[in-house]
């Protein structure tokens, strides 16, 4: 039975990147003699700019609500059918965070240096990025909440994920970066209880304190940061640049849903946004999407070694200068993907797999 992968597409450069994803996933599967079925959501979701183009505030609210309801239903339906992975291009954040709140999502990225590794777990299920808006003349009121239940779930997941990243169980520091001074001491209590229950030391700090510590001392060899999106959304790109000289255009992240109705469903997305200003020009950088396709192929479609094979192919085309304009090249999205697939041949796969093919 073929593995099934979900695909959700937003406006802007979404259709172009969806085509890249499908083509690369198919190419990897062909190299491994593995068929992968891709099930695409029937709706093309709005970016902020495409929603804004359709009308004023009331219309944007309607589109946000409709997109959120549709995408949540798509995620639930795929989870019910046993799908374990969805690739999604960028959609309007307001719709997206409603879904993340309902499905209790965390965003995960590992930022590695030659001597240290940071596991960042972003709390997308609660806080100021979630919640509902109400409107009065000249006023928007946004209501959000934090809860002990969600905080416990996020901490528990971060600790499980740390054990997966570092099976020997050794972690040097576990930090939480939240604006906890605004929460009347409640978050302090919840974190202290969780720390005692799990038998680990968890430091809860204001975001500026975490920033100062990272600037002065850098990363411990193994660091876990659990963070509210108020800090992590801004700092993610900075941390990528500071600690591993990476750009968001080349990175993807995974969103893990903690709600029991969709347990086991992981959503992969590029770190960059919808880039509406370059939509349809065949110039969007495909690297993040390519890497997401490789990771999904390896983790969810049985293509062991696909991540390494694609990284070797990316290095090969980069050495030849086959890059999009944002990376200093002069090639189109399509040309970069074609060049990559040309070198993604069986000889690029791990020797053990080639020998057994």
TrEMBL record:
Q: Where is the Isopropylmalate dehydrogenase-like domain?
A: 4-340
Does NAD count among this protein's keywords?
yes
Give the Gene3D superfamilies listed for this entry.
Isopropylmalate Dehydrogenase
Q: Which InterPro entries match?
A: ICDH/IPMDH, IsoPropMal-DH-like_dom
Name of the protein this chain belongs to: Isocitrate/isopropylmalate dehydrogenase
**A Pfam match:** Iso_dh
UniProt-listed SUPFAM superfamilies? Isocitrate/Isopropylmalate dehydrogenase-like (SSF53659)
Q: Which GO terms describe its molecular function?
A: metal ion binding; oxidoreductase activity
Which cofactors does this protein require?
Mn(2+); Mg(2+)
Instruction: Provide this UniProt record's keywords sorted from A to Z.
Output: Manganese, Metal-binding, NAD, Oxidoreductase
Q: Which SMART domains match?
A: Iso_dh
């Amino acid at each position: 039975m073929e593995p099934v992968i979900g695909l959700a597409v937003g406006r802007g450069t979404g259709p172009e990147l969806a085509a890249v994803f499908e083509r690369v996933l198919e190419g990897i599967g062909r190299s491994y003699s593995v068929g992968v079925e891709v099930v695409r959501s029937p709706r093309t979701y709005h970016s902020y700019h495409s929603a804004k183009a359709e009308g004023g505030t009331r219309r944007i609210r309607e589109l946000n609500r409709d997109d959120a309801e549709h995408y949540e239903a798509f995620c639930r339906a795929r989870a019910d059918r046993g799908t374990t992975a969805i690739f999604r291009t960028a959609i309007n954040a307001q719709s997206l965070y409603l879904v993340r709140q309902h499905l209790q999502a965390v965003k995960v990225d590992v930022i590695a240096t030659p001597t240290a590794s940071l596991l960042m777990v972003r709390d997308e299920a609660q806080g100021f990025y979630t919640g509902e808006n109400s409107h009065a003349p000249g006023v928007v009121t946004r209501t959000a909440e934090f809860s002990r239940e969600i905080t416990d779930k996020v901490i528990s997941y971060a600790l499980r994920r740390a054990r997966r990243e570092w099976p020997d169980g050794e972690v040097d520091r576990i930090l939480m970066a939240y604006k906890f001074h605004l929460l009347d001491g409640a978050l302090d209590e919840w974190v202290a209880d969780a720390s005692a229950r799990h038998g680990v030391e968890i430091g809860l700090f204001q975001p500026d304190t975490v920033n100062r510590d990272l600037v002065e001392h850098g990363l411990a060899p193994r660091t876990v940061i659990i963070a509210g999106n108020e800090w992590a959304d801004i700092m993610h790109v900075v941390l990528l640049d500071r600690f591993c000289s990476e750009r968001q255009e080349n990175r993807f992240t995974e969103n893990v849903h903690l709600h029991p109705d969709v347990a086991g469903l992981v959503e992969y997305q590029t770190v960059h946004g919808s880039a509406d200003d370059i939509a349809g020009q065949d110039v969007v950088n495909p690297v993040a999407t390519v890497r997401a396709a490789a990771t999904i192929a390896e983790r969810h479609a049985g293509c062991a070694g696909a991540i390494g094979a694609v990284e070797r192919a990316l290095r090969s085309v980069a050495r030849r200068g086959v890059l999009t304009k944002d990376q200093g090249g002069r090639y189109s999205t399509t040309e970069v993907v074609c060049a990559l697939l040309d070198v993604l041949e069986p000889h690029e796969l791990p020797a053990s797999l080639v020998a057994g093919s």
